[in-house]
């Protein structure tokens, strides 16, 4: 099974935008289509509460024919056009789709951050983890989220094995970002967030990239747009992950980044796994 996850940072821009970055985004979309994955997980779709427009659906159907599309969008009392997630899965599949709320603080449960697909033998779930925010204004809420989300994945794992994707908004180890020393009190690399991710893995989950590649350095999934040379200089962070239940880690065949060329921000991440029982 081939799976792709990508924080698209505005689906509308990627599908219909006219900027140079939008053009690059569409090239990445075509790369994903060529891979022909069974499932595509998208985060930070930034769609309105009622989901994609008819034109957006038409474009997605052209890019990814024979896929079903489900989405979870930010709704009141959360901000409009914020966060959001989407799954595209081949229409030969027939999962049970759910949009979990995990008891997160504030408006986090209303921001469209989780979708779960339930299959006969496993769960495939994606997350767009809340950012701790400017000046770490949301760090305490983020810490609560991390516990609630770990509880949720652990509950799934007790029923069936789990494959979990998404933008987890944390560089777990020093080798997961280019400049750890200058970012210790930065959102995504605080001790609290790193501890939260450690706690998640201790619940019975494997970081598939590290499982496959060990302590390799210099491989990242995100480069800041504000710094024009961040990708050229590879001043990146690895904050996007494919996790699996520990007991199926040996079924992972590949876990790697997809080359998105000069486009900064997130790059898609790829997982190939043999889930034949």
Characterize the structure shown.
The protein has 277 residues and is of the alpha+beta class. The protein has one domain: 4-Layer Sandwich (Deoxyribonuclease I, Chain A). It contains six helices and 15 strands. The strands form three sheets. It has a six-stranded mixed beta sheet. α4 (139-159) packs parallel to α5 (191-202).
**Radius of gyration using CA atoms only:** 17 Å
Q: How many structural units, i.e. domains? A: 1
**The CATH top-level class label:** Alpha Beta
Helix content: 25-40%
Mean pLDDT figure: 97
Total helical segments: 6
CATH architecture, please? Answer: 4-Layer Sandwich
**Low-pLDDT segments:** none
Looking at the structure, the CATH topology is Deoxyribonuclease I, Chain A
Instruction: Tell me the strand order in the biggest sheet.
Output: 3-4-2-1-15-13
Order of helices and strands: EHHEHEEEEEHEHEHEEEEEE
Structural class: alpha+beta
Q: Estimate what percentage of residues fall within beta strands.
A: 25-35%
The main sheet comes to: 6 strands, mixed
Task: Please outline what is shown here.
The protein has helices at 11-16, 20-35, 54-63, 139-159, 191-202, 208-213; strands at residues 2-7, 39-43, 67-72, 85-90, 96-98, 114-118, 122-128, 161-167, 205-207, 222-223, 236-237, 240-245, 252-257, 265-266, 269-273.
